[in-house]
Design brief:
2 domains; two-stranded parallel ribbon; 6% strand
Length: 104
């Protein structure tokens, strides 16, 4: 999912004319060339859909992060206070990252 986040952030920067499209594409290429081992278990989409339904999320996007943290048995830090409040009672590994403002 890191790939999706990086591509999305670079796209948003180019869309807002904070970087050129060429620089955005070059940064994507550099990122994809990094030696990173990605985890993408096949059970993730099924579990993400279940979690989105259970917690009445408007989409499965955030639920993928929940499912991955559950699968890896690791903490999930989120700046999404709504997500945190929705799941914190059942997912003790979810932590709220309080951020005053994000600038992309």
């Amino acid at each position: 999912m890191l790939r999706y986040e990086v591509v999305s952030a670079l796209y948003r920067k180019a869309l807002r004319d904070l970087v050129t499209w060429e620089d955005s594409q070059a940064a994507q290429a550099q990122f994809l060339a990094l030696d990173i081992e990605f985890q993408d278990p096949q059970v993730l989409p099924i579990r993400a859909a279940e979690l989105a339904r259970i917690y009445q999320r408007p989409n499965t996007y955030d639920a993928f992060y929940l499912a991955l943290a559950e699968y890896l048995e690791c903490k999930l830090w989120t700046a999404d206070e709504g997500l945190f409040n929705a799941v914190r009672k059942d997912f003790c590994y979810t932590c709220w990252l309080r951020v005053k403002s994000l600038h992309f």
